[in-house]
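Hi all, posting the design record for the shared folder.

TITLE: backbone redesign
STEP: 1 of 1
STRUCTURE INPUT:
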């Protein structure tokens, strides 16, 4: 045994006598320790499930053992961003900070530079996903605060909920740029949504809502549910295993109210929201069931 390993053995034995059962080990240390010389008291063994990462365990047997690190946590799921933090709130904050300077999106130059993240309850059962911020959202740095946002807030209220009880996000975290932009908005292109997609997927993974509502065909497409709202709505699809209802975007309701069949569009959205409420186990009053029925 090398002098270094002998020293380490003594150190570990002392720590064990002091009642210590865990020591931290640098990732490269175990490889160095195991070297070529088989050390009688240092050997790799599986880490018990409950052990923290990057720890080594001192076994209680006569001589201490150094245990191999757990495989990287990281059971990391494809397409997700790994963020630091011990609570959902901390992780969302770390994610938000990363989004501010997200190169894949900013380098496209077709998106504006002000990042608009999300708003709401990090422990919400219900998550709404829109497409991208518009002028008002960019100004206030909050999703769905313009006219479409007011419509969405009214829908949430009709469901018997308040805006702070749900979580509201967008696939694309930056307002799509246009020539002569003024207050003009446009839908994000697939590549623009793709550049931001890891954020909304990570938000979903952290929040673990029971139901997601995709607002409009663009948001649905961004989540990997292609098709027209007409063909997708009324039934649940899946985003990362979470039941996802696709319904009309609130802007569509506003347009239909002005120039089309506002009642038909509102009825369709309301039927979808009733299904969402049922899925969430929310109480549904006779009045709520009857909205639009007699109209
Ligand atoms: N439309 C969206 O899809 N998202 C917003 O935040 C605002 C309008």
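Okay, here is what came back for every position:
SEQUENCE:
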């Amino acid at each position: 045994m090398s002098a270094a390993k002998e020293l380490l053995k003594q150190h570990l034995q002392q720590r064990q006598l002091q009642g210590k059962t865990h020591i931290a080990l640098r990732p490269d240390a175990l490889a160095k320790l195991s070297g070529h010389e088989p050390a009688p008291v240092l050997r790799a063994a599986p880490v018990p499930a409950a052990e923290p990462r990057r720890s080594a365990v001192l076994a209680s047997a006569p001589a201490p053992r150094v245990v191999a690190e757990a495989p990287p946590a990281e059971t990391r799921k494809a397409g997700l961003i790994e963020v630091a933090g011990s609570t959902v709130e901390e992780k969302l904050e770390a994610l938000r900070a990363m989004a501010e300077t997200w190169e894949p999106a900013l380098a496209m130059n077709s998106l504006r530079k002000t990042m608009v993240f999300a708003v709401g309850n990090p422990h919400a059962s219900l998550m709404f996903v829109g497409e991208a911020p518009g002028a008002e959202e960019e100004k206030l740095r909050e999703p769905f605060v313009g006219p479409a946002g007011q419509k969405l807030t009214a829908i949430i209220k009709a469901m018997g909920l308040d805006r702070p009880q749900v979580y509201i996000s967008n696939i694309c975290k930056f307002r799509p740029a246009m020539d002569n932009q003024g207050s003009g908005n446009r839908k994000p292109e697939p590549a623009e949504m793709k550049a931001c997609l890891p954020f909304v997927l990570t938000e979903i993974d952290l929040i673990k809502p029971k139901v997601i509502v995709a607002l409009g065909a663009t948001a649905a497409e961004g989540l990997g549910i292609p098709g027209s709202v007409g063909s997708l709505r009324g039934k649940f699809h899946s985003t990362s295993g979470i039941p996802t209802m696709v319904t009309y975007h609130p802007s569509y309701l506003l347009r239909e109210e002005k120039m089309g069949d506002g009642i038909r569009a509102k009825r369709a959205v309301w039927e979808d929201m009733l299904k969402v409420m049922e899925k969430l186990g929310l109480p549904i009053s006779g009045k709520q069931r009857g909205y639009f029925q007699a109209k």
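COMMENT: The domain at 80-289 is CATH 3.40.470.10 (Uracil-DNA Glycosylase, subunit E).
Let me know if anyone wants the other runs.
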